[in-house]
Design a protein that fits this description.
Keywords: Membrane, Transmembrane, Transmembrane helix. By secondary structure, this protein is mainly α. The protein has two helices and no strands. The longest helix has 33 residues.
Length: 62
Amino acid sequence: MTRWTTFSTVLGLIGLLLAMLTALAAGTATLIAFGLAMMVLGFTGSVIGAARSLGRVLDAAR
């Protein structure tokens, strides 16, 4: 995995944990929304990183 994909995956997992733990502790909606936003950004970054890696592999195969 590239650094970009690793960072995005970690960001998404931390966001998921933040959202889940805040919801369990009856935290504010702002923290839950922040955790969900981190999760979405992490997912998007991971998908983009995977697509970039796939593009490199396809170029190398030619």
